């Protein structure tokens, strides 16, 4: 069984003090609270978060820029430690923050795909078949054998999006949404996304799109200045969020 259990967790980032630090504590429309310490500024990204997720949960995160969405996703991915409180994760986690990270321009599309297979934990005996699937999906033809540094932006995007085929996880974490280069790639990527999301035991997705959240999430967590402001059904929470945004 996949599970994430967060209890009273807080996460901060620390920045060395420079210049007139008094102005850095001014309140604004976005961002977490900034606290002046003896030597550092403390950015209180998450404060006293309690959240439990289990198999079958499909959760969307909403909130203004700097509200703590990405930090919460990184915490659930095991990429950040808590300063206080606790988090327990059961199951294989796949964070999809930047699918194209690690692509080496000097290597071919084939070689990059092979390396991505190894990184994703694809068994050695299955790598060749996965590589051929990615080649067919991206539609690059002979360019798949050439260095990525010779690709156009659209061609590189085709390769990167097709690497979704390699992702397998119990817990799928997505920050915003993965775009595509053109309509033909978008159809392929959308099918891969559907397959990937349906196969995951738990989905955690941050997005500003009500349509995407309504399609894939069954409840929303609304974050504001690092704290959970509301949890509930997608339509009800998003309606309240829109009303609150309109009043600001």
TrEMBL record:
Q: Does the keyword Ribosomal protein apply?
A: no
Which UniProt keywords are given for this protein, alphabetically ordered? ATP-binding, Nucleotide-binding
Supply the SMART domains for this chain.
AAA (SM00382)
According to the UniProt entry, its GO molecular function terms are: ATP binding; ATP hydrolysis activity
What residues does the ABC transporter domain cover? 16-248
The record ties this protein, via Pfam families, to: ABC_tran
- The domain of life is Bacteria
Q: Which InterPro entries match?
A: AAA+_ATPase, ABC_transporter-like_ATP-bd, Bact_Polysacc_Export_ATP-bd, P-loop_NTPase
Gene3D superfamilies found in the cross-reference section: P-loop containing nucleotide triphosphate hydrolases
Q: Which PANTHER family match?
A: TEICHOIC ACIDS EXPORT ATP-BINDING PROTEIN TAGH (PTHR46743:SF2)
**What's the protein here called?**
ATP-binding cassette domain-containing protein
């Amino acid at each position: 069984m996949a599970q994430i259990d967060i209890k009273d967790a807080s996460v901060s980032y620390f920045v060395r003090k420079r210049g007139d630090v008094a102005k850095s504590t001014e309140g604004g429309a976005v961002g977490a609270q900034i606290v002046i310490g003896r030597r550092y500024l403390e950015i209180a990204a998450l404060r006293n978060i309690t959240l439990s997720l289990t198999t079958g949960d499909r959760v969307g995160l909403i909130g203004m820029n700097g509200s703590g969405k990405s930090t919460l996703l990184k915490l659930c991915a095991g990429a950040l430690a808590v300063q206080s409180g606790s988090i327990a994760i059961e199951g294989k986690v796949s964070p999809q923050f930047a699918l194209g990270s690690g692509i080496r321009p000097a290597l071919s599309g084939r070689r990059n795909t092979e390396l991505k297979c190894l990184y994703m934990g694809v068994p050695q005996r299955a790598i060749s078949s996965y590589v051929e699937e990615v080649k067919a999906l991206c539609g690059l033809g002979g360019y798949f054998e050439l260095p990525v540094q010779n690709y156009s932006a659209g061609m590189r995007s085709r390769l990167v999006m097709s690497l979704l085929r390699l992702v397998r996880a119990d817990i799928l974490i997505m920050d915003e949404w993965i775009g595509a280069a053109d309509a033909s790639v978008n159809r392929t990527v959308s099918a891969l996304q559907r397959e990937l999301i349906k196969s995951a035991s738990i989905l955690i997705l941050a997005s500003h799109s009500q349509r995407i959240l309504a399609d894939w999430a069954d409840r929303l967590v609304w974050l504001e200045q690092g704290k959970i402001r509301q949890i509930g059904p997608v339509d009800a929470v998003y309606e309240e969020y829109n009303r609150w945004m309109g009043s600001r």
